[in-house]
Amino acid sequence: MIDINNLNKIFNAGQPNQVNAVNGIDLHIKSEDFLVIVGANGSGKTTLLNLVAGSVFPSSGTISIDSENVTKQPDYQRSRSIARVFQNPMSGTASDLSILDNFRLASIRTKSKGLSIGVNDTFKNQVKEKISTLGLGLENKIEQPMGTLSGGQRQALTLLMSVMDSCKVLLLDEPTAALDPRSADIVMRTAEEIIRDYRLTSILITHNLKDAFNYGNRIILMGEGKIVKDLEKDQKSALKQTDLYDWFG
């Protein structure tokens, strides 16, 4: 599904402050894999995710998604197959628009925009049904401005919005880092359900080792821009939570 070959990213090349953020990574992520990436700050996790998303381009190496070479495609072109949820709950929504309008924009994210982008009763009911699965009561507040919601509510809605349009890959960039424990739990459970129900290929970056232990079928530890450990399903299942803490000891 996602093939990464000899991927390198150097920032400020040839300068005193040169940073080798990603160093020769080779990685194959199978269709419907839920990959969790952990590592200390500066280990290259976010840079790798940005490279997959197309937010930055590699210094060398290639990235393919569904056998298509996307190495030189910018993020707006890759958005045809990639959806992303950011660490900041404010990044994935339009504060001044209603919940319903945000969902409508999400539903036409990769489509050609004509003169008719309004909503009808069928769409409203579809949105209400999706939102009701969160158990937050927001299905009765779809006309409420998104900016009046809490960070946890917005992040949970952002996840639902990510699959309003077609996508094959879901990138989760520390989606619970700014949330309280209850909101974080709702967001992660929602993410897991969406990934399973829509059969998505997913990458989660997290510093929360409890989430790294509980979610995903594969886990990678990064350090100095390289993959230090790579545990597939059976190996991950055999892990104890204390083993993950030992990785950072």
Description:
With 249 residues, the chain is α/β, with parallel strands linked by helices. It has a single domain, classed as P-loop containing nucleotide triphosphate hydrolases (Rossmann fold), CATH 3.40.50.300. 33% of the residues lie in helices and 24% in strands. The protein has a six-stranded mixed sheet with strand order 6-7-8-3-9-10, sandwiched between helices. Helix 5 (151-162) packs parallel to helix 6. The mean pLDDT is 93.
What's the CATH architecture? Answer: 3-Layer(aba) Sandwich
Strand order of the largest sheet: 6-7-8-3-9-10
How many structural domains are formed by the residues?
Answer: 1
What class, by secondary structure content? Answer: alpha/beta
Low-confidence sequence ranges: none
- The percentage of residues in β strands lies in 15-25%
Mean pLDDT: 93
CATH-defined superfamily: P-loop containing nucleotide triphosphate hydrolases
Report the radius of gyration as a whole number of Å: 19 Å
Shape: globular
Total number of helices: 9
Which CATH class?
Alpha Beta
Describe the largest sheet: 6 strands, mixed
Q: What is the helix fraction of residues, given as a range?
A: 25-40%
Here the CATH topology equals: Rossmann fold
Q: H/E order of the elements? A: EEEHEEHEHHHEHEHEEHH
Could you tell me the number of beta strands? Answer: 10
Distance between the termini: 33 Å
